[in-house]
């Protein structure tokens, strides 16, 4: 459709997609595909937040107008979105970060 084509042009202009003028096609660079095709990380979190925006908006509006808040349990989909975003950090980066602190590493790797 025209909307999809225009979205792809926009994404290509911003470096998200690559555009081949010869055959008028778009492709996703491998380094972007890794992020976009993952079940964890930034993209699923963004999708989860956007997907639930119509549900969240009235809650956010009321909280803002009343200087109140929103219970975590009322934020549908947010917990799953956050888990998907932070899981790679905890699994891949946290072990290296812990090793940077010898005392913390010792405490976490010894019994007792």
Q: Could you tell me the mean pLDDT? A: 82
Using the alpha-carbon principal axes, give the shape. Answer: flat
Helix-residue proportion: 55-70%
Order of helices and strands: HEEHHHHH
Number of helices: 6
Estimate what percentage of residues fall within beta strands: 5-15%
Number of strands: 2
Low-pLDDT stretches are: none
Structural class: mainly alpha
Largest sheet: number of strands, sense, barrel closure: 2 strands, antiparallel
User: Strand order across the biggest sheet?
Assistant: 1-2
Rg calculated over all Cα atoms:
21 Å
**First-residue to last-residue Cα separation:** 62 Å
What does this structure look like?
The structure is a single chain. The chain has 112 residues and is mainly α. Helix content is 64%, strand content 5%. The protein contains six helices and two strands. It has helices spanning 2-13, 30-36, 42-51, 53-65, 78-99, 102-109; strands spanning 18-20, 25-27. The chain has a two-stranded antiparallel sheet with strand order 1-2. α3 (42-51) packs antiparallel against α5.
SSE order and pairing:
Elements: H1 2-13, E1 18-20, E2 25-27, H2 30-36, H3 42-51, H4 53-65, H5 78-99, H6 102-109
Antiparallel strand pairs: 1-2
Helix pairs in contact: 3-5
């Amino acid at each position: 459709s025209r909307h999809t084509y225009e979205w792809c042009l926009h994404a290509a202009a911003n470096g998200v997609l690559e555009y081949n003028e010869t055959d008028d096609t778009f492709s996703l660079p491998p380094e972007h595909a890794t992020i976009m095709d993952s079940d964890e990380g930034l993209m699923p979190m963004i999708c989860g937040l956007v997907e639930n925006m119509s549900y969240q908006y009235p809650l956010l509006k009321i909280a803002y107008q009343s200087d109140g808040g929103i219970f975590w349990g009322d934020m549908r989909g947010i917990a799953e979105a956050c888990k998907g975003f932070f899981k790679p950090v905890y699994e891949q980066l946290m072990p290296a970060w812990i090793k940077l602190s010898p005392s913390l590493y010792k405490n976490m790797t010894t019994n007792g």
